[in-house]
Design a protein that fits this description.
Length: 141
């Protein structure tokens, strides 16, 4: 029978090929994501506050929506950007706003925290080139 041999060859070939890189969605060169509020250096009394996110030269669309030049916000808290060729993680340091939110109520413990915005495409992949804000610092009292 040739099928077991064919299956073995296909299996060996697929294992040898390595992982398949995800396709990145292009973004316009002039796209910009930014914080409307808070600003860099803001002191926040109490742990709950609103984060307001802005975007220029692109549009907001919920996850799963395949429309050119759109994406949705991800808030990076106290972390560096993830690998820009992989999907953005979803954990306490990487908040996803896949419904297309442009503002969110966030709660952080007292202390200094860094915040950064990263736009993701329909599959939570960073665009190419990435649409990422400057990292800001806030202090929660």
């Amino acid at each position: 029978m040739r099928f077991p041999l064919l299956f073995s060859v296909l299996l060996a070939t697929s294992l040898h090929a390595g992982p398949v890189a995800a396709q990145q969605t292009p973004s316009p060169e002039n796209a910009q994501v930014y914080f409307i509020w808070p600003h860099d250096g803001t002191v926040i009394n109490g742990g709950k506050f609103w984060v307001r996110m802005g975007l220029r030269n692109m549009g907001i669309a919920p996850k799963g929506t395949a429309v050119p030049n759109t994406g949705h916000h991800h808030l990076l808290i106290d972390t560096d950007p993830p690998p820009l060729t992989e999907p953005i993680p979803n954990d306490r340091n990487h908040l996803h706003f896949g419904a297309g939110e442009t503002e969110a109520r966030v709660e952080l413990p007292p202390g200094k925290h860094t915040l950064q915005l990263l736009l993701g495409d329909k599959d939570h992949m960073p665009h190419n080139p990435p649409v990422m804000s400057k990292k800001i610092t806030v202090t929660v009292k």
